[in-house]
């Protein structure tokens, strides 16, 4: 089946770039402070924070678990040859900040790659379920476990894996849900068949031959 061309390419280089920037932001707290979503700063005109917030993390554990999930799932997507994840990553990275700014005035600070990491894991599982015949039950179980983790963290209002260290933080199930929605939308788009394919004149020739 013909697939739409990727608007945003995904591969090893983007994965390593995002991981490197996140590590750099954690090593240099001043940089992290300039990247994190800060509602007052955004309203004062620092709109880039909506896009850069995922690069800021609140503890080494927070960074470790997010990078572990994102890099593992991202490299798996690349290795499997699954196309179309780039838009899902951008959606998962940018949408939470927009949503929090619009409808969550109590949300003063936000950061972390958990949304994009969730998007990557969900995208990989969905692609396996829909495009391969191998271990479909296993990938479905993983998706269900991911959903259970989101529900559990929302119920206890604490992260299951990452810990806040000196800077306590709360999990944001909404960011994980948005990441999952981004993955679902990207998988749906990647499975769309263009109305016409082949050479530029193929559709004209097809009409003449009918």
UniProtKB/TrEMBL annotation:
SUPFAM superfamilies assigned to the protein according to its UniProt record, in alphabetical order: Rhomboid-like (SSF144091)
UniProt topology in membrane: Multi-pass membrane protein
Transmembrane segments: 7-28, 55-77, 84-103, 109-130, 137-156
Record keywords, A-Z: Membrane, Transmembrane, Transmembrane helix
Protein localization: Membrane
Main localization (coarse): membrane
Domain Peptidase S54 rhomboid: 45-151
Molecular function terms from GO: serine-type endopeptidase activity
Any single Gene Ontology cellular-component annotation: membrane
Recorded coiled-coil stretches: none
NCBIfam families, per database record: rhom_GG_sort
Name of the protein: Rhombosortase
Originating species: uncultured Desulfobacteraceae bacterium
């Amino acid at each position: 089946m013909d697939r739409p061309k990727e608007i945003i390419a995904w591969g090893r280089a983007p994965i390593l770039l995002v991981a490197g920037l996140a590590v750099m932001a954690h090593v240099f707290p001043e940089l992290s402070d300039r990247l994190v979503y800060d509602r007052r700063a955004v309203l004062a005109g620092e709109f880039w924070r909506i896009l850069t917030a995922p690069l800021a993390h609140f503890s080494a554990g927070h960074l470790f678990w997010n990078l572990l999930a994102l890099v593992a799932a991202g490299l798996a997507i690349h290795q499997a040859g699954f196309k179309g994840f780039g838009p899902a990553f951008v959606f998962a990275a940018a949408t939470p900040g927009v949503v929090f700014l619009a409808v969550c005035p109590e949300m003063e600070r936000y950061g972390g790659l958990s949304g994009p990491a969730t998007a990557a894991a969900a995208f990989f599982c969905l692609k396996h379920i829909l495009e391969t015949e191998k271990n479909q039950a296993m990938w479905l179980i993983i998706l269900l476990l991911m959903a259970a983790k989101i529900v559990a963290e929302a119920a206890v209002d604490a992260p299951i894996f990452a810990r806040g260290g000196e800077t306590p933080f709360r999990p944001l199930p909404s960011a994980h849900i948005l990441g999952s929605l981004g993955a679902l939308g990207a998988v749906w788009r990647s499975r769309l068949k263009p109305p016409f394919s082949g050479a530029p004149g193929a559709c004209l020739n097809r009409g003449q031959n009918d």
